[in-house]
Write a structure and sequence with these properties.
The complex is a heterodimer of chains A (about 80) and B (about 190). By secondary structure, chain A is mainly alpha-helical. Chain A has helices spanning about 5-15, 20-30, 35-50, 60-70. In chain A, helix 1 packs across helix 3 and helix 2 (about 20-30) packs across helix 3. The longest helix of chain A has 18 residues, at about 35-50. Chain A starts with a helix and ends in a 6-residue tail after the last helix. Chain B is mainly alpha-helical. Chain B has nine helices and no strands. In chain B, helix 2 packs across helix 4, helix 7 crosses helix 9 and helix 8 packs across helix 9. The longest helix of chain B is centred in the N-terminal third of the chain and has 23 residues, at about 20-40. The chains are: A mainly alpha (about 80), B mainly alpha (about 190). Chains A and B meet through helix 1, helix 3 and helix 4 of A and helix 2, helix 3, helix 5, helix 6 and helix 7 of B.
């Protein structure tokens, strides 16, 4: 495998988008090839980094949505 | 008996049946990923909040009209709505998002702070802001694929369909995004997550 295809396969593997056979081969490669293991570890850490960017909207923003929903809710017949 | 989280589908059914708390729970569950997905595209908190509200208004109307057919894929569906609204917005404006000053971001309000001390909070706040800026520095097509795959849990096939490219192209964009992120992290000498 060249570097590009290794990285792309590892990305697919990380996101559970590889088939059973490929998954077994990739995991074996991670377990036995230090370079592949390092690459996989780096990819995982980069995505953990991306999680650090997560943030919430303001409470006002949420209450606006809920108010809209309550205001436009279909009337239930008693 | 262990605690079992109510599924998105169950919450949707409750909401459609008139239980408003179903919607509230759905929003609270997914707000961070949906909001960040929009924010990273528009790079402006006020605009991101407007698009976020518009997104959920569309969600509410679609659910009530009975036109929701994405069972099991609520989050990707909502992120896709937000993405399309962002594209519409910039199409109307006829410009791409600009990098804005970020001092107006109330990062402290947004962080999930638990038992950390003040120093940890400040470090986390700094990391949070730096990471967001790093992602914002990625080209739009790479940013999109990171957001859709990592936050929205969309498959590369779904991403390819949404962005009108091949699966290989979207996968290639993800690889370039990773290369660029690593480079930016190295340039800025950031320490990768503890």
């Amino acid at each position: 495998m060249n570097k590009t295809s290794t990285t792309e396969k590892l990305i697919l593997y990380l996101f559970n988008e590889t088939g059973m056979t490929d998954s077994v081969l990739i995991q074996k490669s991670i377990d036995t090839d230090l370079e592949v293991e390092t690459e996989f570890d780096t990819i995982k850490r980069a995505f953990r980094y991306v999680d650090k960017a997560l943030m919430n909207p303001s409470p006002k923003c949420l209450s606006n949505i809920l108010e809209y929903s309550a205001r436009t809710a279909p009337k239930v017949n008693a | 008996m262990g605690y079992t989280e109510v599924s998105d589908n169950e919450l949707i059914t409750r909401f459609i049946s008139g239980d408003e708390s179903g919607l509230e729970k759905l929003i609270l569950r997914h707000q961070r990923k949906v909001f960040t997905s929009i924010l990273l595209l528009v790079k402006d908190k006020e605009l991101a909040e407007d698009v976020f509200q518009e997104t959920f208004i569309k969600v509410i109307n679609t659910l009530r009209s009975g036109n929701y057919h994405e069972e099991g894929k609520f989050l990707p569906w909502v992120v896709r709505i937000g993405h399309n609204l962002v594209i519409d917005h910039f199409r109307k404006q006829k410009r791409m998002p600009m990098v804005r000053d970020t001092e107006d971001f109330s990062i402290m309000d947004s962080l999930k702070l638990t038992d950390e001390n003040i120093e940890d909070k400040l470090i986390n706040t700094q990391i949070h802001q730096e990471v967001r800026l790093l992602i914002e520095h990625l080209p739009l097509d790479q940013r999109e694929v990171v957001i859709m795959r990592h936050y929205a849990n969309m498959s590369f096939k779904d991403i390819a369909e949404t962005t009108n490219v091949s699966i290989n192209t979207s996968l290639g964009r993800m690889r370039y995004a990773l290369i660029n992120l690593r480079k930016l992290i190295k340039d800025k000498q950031l320490v990768l997550v503890k």
